[in-house]
Specification:
Blueprint lengths: L11 H22 L11 H18 L5 H6 L2 H20 L16 H28 L6 H7 L3 H17 L5 E8 L4 E5 L5 E17 L5 E12 L4 E7 L4 E3 L2 E8 L9 E8 L3 H25 L1
Antiparallel strand pairs: 1-8, 2-3, 3-4, 4-5, 6-7, 7-8
Helix pairs in contact: 1-4, 1-5, 2-5, 4-5, 5-7, 7-8
């Protein structure tokens, strides 16, 4: 029986085989070296990996006419199978409890098959973006008016670019995110915080608790609790502000959240626990999201212009 596999032109059968091969390779990696250690990608490692990843995508694009496999990767016959694998794995992640210390299906973000499928999907997306950019460069000389340029521009390019940017930066930037706990006491400036491993981390800013604020319901249960604080930074800022549970304050790349207090003293607490979060890659993730939104909105407007 002639199964007719790997005969050109390749179809979705080959696409599914490539995705299945990645899952098998991921399982072998999972069994041999364990899950993906994202902490190893802290800066500058993630910056180097990002540059290499972009260089690989550009190289695949430049050599696509010489290597058939590279040309195939940017087709829908390759994209649909990997998207199907991604949907299945993401659904499994949604149906299983995800924990930091979980293994395999209980910690999908470190599960090699999951990671490899999403990396492959990002490669395909990158190649599609480059194809769209090249097509627009080739067509742009034929436009004679802004209206032609607007109606002829594939605004899906913005959505693709936004998705690529959000996917890559959110993943690689995760290692640089810090989430710390700071215990502040009224009248005592504090510049040290605790990591999730309870290690002491000195910060480029100091926080002094001026007053802990609590409002309660008639039964004495907390209605609102907040901290009136003074912030001093190495850059010379001197800020007096109030941090509420749902109203954090941001300064020099740090978001300061109200986290807890001395529950035994309640409204009389002289201690407030703050959570400080730094995520330097977050602006790039937001940029990607905004590009996706812009692409969707402009596609809608473009439809209206055509009408």
């Amino acid at each position: 029986m002639n199964i007719n596999i790997w005969n050109k032109p390749w179809t979705m059968k080959e696409g599914f085989l490539i995705g299945g091969g990645l899952i098998i390779a991921g399982m072998l990696l999972e069994l041999s070296v364990g899950g993906v250690d994202w902490d190893a990608f802290a800066w500058p490692a993630n910056g180097i990996v990002m540059a290499l990843f972009l260089a690989i995508i550009i190289s695949l694009f430049l050599f696509r006419k010489k290597v058939y496999a590279f040309r195939f990767i940017s087709t829908y016959q390759a994209a649909i199978p990997v998207l199907a694998y991604a949907v299945v794995l993401t659904t499994i992640m949604g149906l299983t409890r995800q924990t930091v210390d979980g293994t395999w299906l209980n910690n999908m973000l470190t599960f090699w098959p999951f990671v490899l499928i999403y990396v492959y999907m990002a490669v395909i997306l990158g190649l599609v973006i480059l194809k769209q950019i090249q097509a627009e460069i080739n067509k742009i000389r034929h436009f004679h008016s802004f209206r032609q340029l607007f109606t002829g521009f594939p605004f899906s390019l913005l959505s693709h670019l936004g998705l690529f940017l959000a996917m890559t930066t959110a993943t690689l930037g995760n290692a640089d995110m810090e989430r710390l706990k700071m215990i502040t006491v009224v009248g005592e400036p504090e510049w040290r915080a605790l990591t999730k491993e309870n290690a002491i981390r000195e910060l480029p800013l100091a926080i002094e608790l001026k007053q802990f604020i609590m409002e309660t319901y008639d039964d004495g249960s907390p209605k609102r609790f907040a901290s009136e604080i003074q912030i001093l930074t190495k850059s010379g800022k001197n800020i007096h502000t109030t941090v509420d549970v749902n109203n954090p304050f941001e300064v020099d790349g740090w978001k300061i959240y109200q986290y807890g207090y001395d529950t035994q003293l309640g409204p009389m607490s002289q201690t407030s626990i703050l959570e400080l979060v730094s995520d330097p890659w977050l602006p790039y993730v937001y940029t990607g999201i905004y590009l996706m939104l812009a692409g969707a909105i402009l596609m809608f407007v473009k439809g209206g212009v055509k009408g």
